[in-house]
Amino acid sequence: MILWNDVALIIQRKRIMKNISLKKAASDLSINMFKYYRIENGVQEPNFFELQLIFEYYDIELIINFP
């Protein structure tokens, strides 16, 4: 099971690896910078639409396995 904090850390690392500022990422994603900061630091979970945008922005693939 993956916890939200783990996902937030992946997002943060991807942003840093791509050398994108927090402000630019938030602006590119049309997410309030304060909210994006909270998402990236695991304090707030994004809604499904925001999560989808973030994953596409950083080329993160989401694979769901159903038993």
Q: Which of globular, elongated, flat, extended, rod-shaped describes the shape?
A: globular
Main sheet specs: none
Determine the N-to-C terminus distance. Answer: 13 Å
- Helix-and-strand structural type: mainly alpha
Count of DSSP helices?
4
Identify the quaternary structure here: single chain
> Per DSSP, what share of the residues sits in E-state strands of 2 or more residues?
under 5%
Low-confidence stretches: none
- Overall pLDDT level: 92
Gyration radius, rounded: 12 Å
What brief labels describe this structure?
single chain; 67 residues; mainly alpha; 4 helices; 60% helix
3D architecture notes:
This protein is mostly helical and 67 residues long. The protein has a domain at 19-60. Helix content is 60%, strand content 0%. The protein has helices at residues 4-17, 22-29, 33-40, 48-57. The longest helix is centred in the first third of the chain and has 14 residues, at 4-17. The mean pLDDT is 92.
Describe, in short, the structure shown:
This protein has 67 residues and is mostly helical. The chain has 4 helices and no strands.
